[in-house]
Known about the structure:
alpha+beta; 30% helix; 11% strand; globular
Amino acid sequence: AVLCFSHASYGVAVVPRAVWALAQEHAREIWRGVWMEEDRIEEHRRAFRSYACLPLDLGHVLEVGAGPWTQTRAILHTRPDLHVSTLNPK
């Protein structure tokens, strides 16, 4: 399902613990070099209409908890001038 945990008013606030745990395991496998695949980046870009609602000047963006599948990557395809930092706390 396209963004099945998304709410029209506030986006994705909470995902089920089992979904979160599976995502953590996949991230560990990627960091260990076991496998790598896209995190539905094209699905997200389509669902968010290529992020057209974002203002032209976002300044410097910080994505916290990005892991190997930073969601900002989808925005960078159409906004290569964007300045992004990612933070992955343990």
